[in-house]
Amino acid sequence: MNNSLSQTGPGIFIDRDGTLNEEVDFLCRPDDVVLIGGAARAIAVLNAKSIPVIIVTNQSGIGRGLYGWEEYGAVAKKIDDLLALEGAHIDDSFACPFHEDGVGEYRQANHPDRKPMPGMLVRAAQKHKIDLARSWMIGDKEIDMEAGRRAGCRVALVRTGYGCAVNPKLADIVADNLGLAIEAILGFVEE
Known about the structure:
Layout: H1 3-6, E1 12-14, H2 39-48, E2 53-58, H3 60-63, H4 69-84, E3 92-96, H5 119-128, E4 136-139, H6 142-151, E5 154-158, E6 173-175, H7 178-189
Parallel strand pairs: 1-2, 1-4, 2-3, 4-5, 5-6
Helix pairs in contact: 2-7
C-alpha cells in the first residue's frame, strides 16, 4: 500500500515548554503554567480549519525521576483548560521521557523519539494521517528545528523560551511568538 495515498493533509507540530507556554525548567506544577500570549487564539484558528495540532515534547524530567507521569498529566490538563478558555484544543500530545541521564528504563541515549530525532513526529503523522511534507514544526530550540527537518517538515523558530539564542538561518520562518508563527504558516498550509 502506498502510504502517501492515506495521508490527508498538513499538521502543525508544536514544542511545549518555551513555545506554547512560558519556559519553566522541569515544569511539573500546574500553577506554574502560563500560556504565551496569542498562542491559544492562534491554535483556535488552526482548529477551525481542521488542521491537526500536535504537541511533541522532550520530558527528561520524567526520565531523570524529577517528577512522574501524574505531574505531567496535571500540567497537560492545565494547558488544555487554558486553551479551552479561548475555544482552542490540542489534537494529540507526544512526550519522550528517554534521556542519556535517565534512570531505569528511561536511561537511553539517542532514543528515536527524543528530539532532535523525528520519532514523535513520524508516529503522530502515521496516527493522524498527516502529510509531513506539507507540515510544520514550531519550536524554540535547535533540536526542534532538526527534528522537524529530519521528519521532512518545514520549521518555524519562535523567539520565546530559548529561541533568541538559536541561529535564525536554521528556520524557514522566524517569529516573535507562536501566534505570529502560526499566522505566517497559514499562508503555506492553506490550498
